[in-house]
Amino acid sequence: MKLSAPIYQLKRKARLLSREENMPLHGALNRIAMQEGFGAWSLLAAKAFATTTAGKLFPRLTPGDIILVAARPGQGKTLMSLELAVEAMKSGNRSVFFTLEYTEKDMLDRFRAIGVERANFDGLFEFDNSDAINANYIVKKLATTPRGALVVIDYLQLLDQRRENPELMVQVRQLKSFARAQGLIFVFISQIDRSYNPMTKSFPDLEDVRLPNPLDLSLFSKTCFLNNGEVQFRAAR
After folding, report:
1. Does residue 182 surpass a pLDDT of 90?
2. Local confidence band at 192 (pLDDT 50, 70, 90 cut-offs)
3. What is the DSSP string of 20-87?
4. What is the Cα–Cα distance from 184 to 210, expressed in whole angstroms?
5. Is residue 161 classed exposed, middle or buried when 0-12, 13-18 and 19+ CB atoms within 10 A define those classes?
6. 122 or 89: which carries more pLDDT confidence?
7. What pTM did the predictor assign?
């Protein structure tokens, strides 16, 4: 879904609407968002943020990277991860989206939200929402995937939800080794703990990642934290 104007122009339009109709700014923003086909301004902003940010971040990723993309709900982490997959496909590489949460219809809706037709990438994009997803499953599925492909895992905290699955630490180490050996880029979507307070800290960080089970977060080569339409991107030292 393409916006009718850049987001800064839409914000200006909302401010004018707010003054003209003597309504709260958040109400004016939501009205503008609905005119653009979104249910709320937060959804429109997440879409615009994901699109512009992914284009800047993708060139900074290299084969063998495993990236943590983390944020509270509604901040655009899934859309941005999908946009990173689109950027990879634009450069001729494959993308695979493993999810333990979304359906095929959900994924089509996400493509529409970022203004992209999935059909344009036939042969380059694969969607997998099997209940069997874990590190072993992913490694088998990607055994013949060419170097440079980008793989999204949605999301980190669900990998070991089944008792028969290996511990989360074991799975992430396995996927890190596999990414390096195969020359793939792994993007792990992650939840942030509810205790994170954006009023006292501009961005969440590694301390705020929700970890129901132990995990050494230094295994990630890069981190990307999202909040309020901005991103904090860091490479491991």
Report:
1. yes
2. very high
3. HTT--HHHHHHHHHHHTT-SSHHHHHHHHHHHHHHHHHGGG--TT-EEEEEESTTSSHHHHHHHHHHH
4. 25
5. middle
6. 89
7. 0.82
